[in-house]
Structure prediction request, 102 residues.
Amino acid sequence: MLGRALIGSLLITLLTSPSIAAEEEHLVVRNKQECYKALAAVESQLYKRVKAKTLDEEQIDELNLILDDSDQYCFEGKVKKAKKKLMSAIEIILTSPAEKVD
Prediction:
């Protein structure tokens, strides 16, 4: 439940990041920082799900590719693309069970 709350607040933060009104240079630096924080939060949730063995190998591989792409987009300052990738990762993580049911 805490993971879902964290991801929910993360998603709200991502969706409400600064708009075009800010200077472009300032926007890139600020969004890069937010982008990396969001990426770290999603990676943390992925790690927890891997440790709990609630994801199959295919999901883990897909999430790792998505997070690699997100990392590259964050680095390049392409925050909108990174957001899309991170949201798809969040969706996959949220659809997996938090704990393995035997």
About this structure: The chain is about 75% helix and 0% strand.
